Amino acid sequence: MIAKSPSKNNPRARFMIRILFVLVQNILSLTLWVLATPFYLIGKLKGPGQVWVELNLEPDFPISAPKSRWLPKPYTYLNLRSDLLEIKQAKRCKGVIVSWDQPLAMGPAKLAEIRRLLVEIREAGIEVVFFCDQLDTRDYPLATAATHIVLNRAGRLYTFKPHMELYFFKGLFEKFGLAAQFVHVGEFKTAGHRFIHQNAPRAQELMMSELLQRLNAELETTCGPRFSPALHELAPMDARNALKHGLVDAEIGEPLLPSFLADSENFDPKSELDPKKLPLVMNMEGWRASKFEMPWKPLLRKPLIAVIDLSGMIVSSGMSGAGAQISPDKVIPALKALKRNRRVRAVILHINSPGGSASASEQLWQEIQDLRQEVPVVAWCTDVAASGGYYLACAADQVVAAPESIVGSIGVIMGKFNLSGTSDKLGIGVETIGEPSLLSAVSELDGQLLENIQADIRSFYATFLDRVRLSRRIPRRKLHRYARGRVYLGRDAQKRGLVDGLGGFEEAYRRALELTQLPEKAVALTSYAYKEQDFRALLRENLLYSGQAQVLDKVERHQLIFEMFQNEGMLAWSGITTRSQVP
């Protein structure tokens, strides 16, 4: 018989063991800190007063790091936020230089999150300088957070006016004998339109035109005084023309950047500056390493506000596919773990999803409801919270969306692809034994089966409306006018009562603190990961937004959509993307 450890099921014993270890750790930390203090003071006296910190942006920042035993954890948005908030309060930071080596791949709402943090730094009296080789329509609003926008002398502005391109494949499918059949509730539920129409129906055209108009208005509002008609009308333009029209503040080569930082007001590119007057520039890793703080660990652990990331398409448990996915068999155990954790006082759900499987959305909705019975839940919507994504958001106590977020698409679609024509063209014979079903690849939707499907999606649409009506407290008749598959930007969604507040993570965090009735200093912020990091995902990250990765993303995305339509049947998916060009 194996004797059990006395501390295994004894909370008091575990607490005493923790106290002992923490005391020993703090004594060692204090000893090392005291020994290092003289060296730090000597370095501070001899070193420069204030420094510049270089922030090199990655193409994207995950909200939380996936679980991995061997692979290094990526730098997340919450890490970035923590670093920028520390810089905002640091007296020895003169300014921040923002740049990037690869094209930014974040959606407008996530870029707006970073912009808000940089604006806070600028308003705290710390200079923010953007140094870029080129700026496009996606990047320029972010750059307007800067005190100075500096464009490389060989740089360009590609700030074309946003537009949308909708592609329809009915004619292509007919050439291959492929037929798409979809049934939907709501004239604005357009996910299947690209497969069954050759042109945009009037409702889709109206909705997308209004959406584009709102996006352009948000772009102008974000840019503020920096906005000029020349931003779009003269694009593309070189650095000299951009400077001439006030879209940038300087056009210099990288070797002259330190001189510009030393005295931006009186900068003269033809004069040489004394090397002793040049500022010290360190990267973010150097900045973190230079902090001289005693790593004191508290004896009592703080209560937690946990952030869990729900990004990607919502798929059924066990479904294969690459890329970001939200699957009940992965997410539900994580939500149950948060529910069991006594330290968790509130949960922030980060939602960035165009929707997906209706049944999986309902499973996740039920689990979020169960979690709400224990702790408050705030939904933080970034780029897209549409259809199934919005379905999940409605399970939370409160919903926060950015002005740039795409929200809504309350509707249902169901359908399939019929390959009988394709098989005929290829000379493939198919014999069907028994009654064909929705999952058949070579049968049409007709007769009783079609009636059953129509009744099924009407039933789920009624459920969808009830979920939203009870969550948002909107009368059913008014809600139906807002629904029918229509999507809105965050500001319009708030006017209609579909979201509670406008903003980003800080607004969601503030609301979570209010619901817990705890001061910010009394809690700790943590992210909870449920996704596993594997070598394939790491390879995709290294190829991110290279030509190979873009092709891989497109192929896998459409392969997953096809698989879901064939195997899942009912969907609550919007088909909306956040890029200026909608495929």
TrEMBL record:
<dbReference type="Pfam" id="PF01343">
    <property type="entry name" value="Peptidase_S49"/>
</dbReference>
<dbReference type="InterPro" id="IPR004634">
    <property type="entry name" value="Pept_S49_pIV"/>
</dbReference>
<dbReference type="GO" id="GO:0006465">
    <property type="term" value="P:signal peptide processing"/>
</dbReference>
<keyword id="KW-0812">Transmembrane</keyword>
<feature type="domain" description="Peptidase S49">
    <location>
        <begin position="122"/>
        <end position="211"/>
    </location>
</feature>
<dbReference type="GO" id="GO:0016020">
    <property type="term" value="C:membrane"/>
</dbReference>
<feature type="active site" description="Nucleophile">
    <location>
        <position position="387"/>
    </location>
</feature>
<feature type="domain" description="Peptidase S49">
    <location>
        <begin position="371"/>
        <end position="517"/>
    </location>
</feature>
<comment type="similarity">
    <text>Belongs to the peptidase S49 family.</text>
</comment>
<dbReference type="GO" id="GO:0008236">
    <property type="term" value="F:serine-type peptidase activity"/>
</dbReference>
<dbReference type="InterPro" id="IPR029045">
    <property type="entry name" value="ClpP/crotonase-like_dom_sf"/>
</dbReference>
<feature type="active site" description="Proton donor/acceptor">
    <location>
        <position position="189"/>
    </location>
</feature>
<dbReference type="InterPro" id="IPR047272">
    <property type="entry name" value="S49_SppA_C"/>
</dbReference>
<keyword id="KW-0472">Membrane</keyword>
<keyword id="KW-0378">Hydrolase</keyword>
<feature type="transmembrane region" description="Helical">
    <location>
        <begin position="20"/>
        <end position="41"/>
    </location>
</feature>
<protein>
    <submittedName>
        <fullName>Signal peptide peptidase SppA</fullName>
    </submittedName>
</protein>
<dbReference type="InterPro" id="IPR004635">
    <property type="entry name" value="Pept_S49_SppA"/>
</dbReference>
<keyword id="KW-1133">Transmembrane helix</keyword>
<dbReference type="InterPro" id="IPR002142">
    <property type="entry name" value="Peptidase_S49"/>
</dbReference>
<keyword id="KW-0720">Serine protease</keyword>
<keyword id="KW-0645">Protease</keyword>
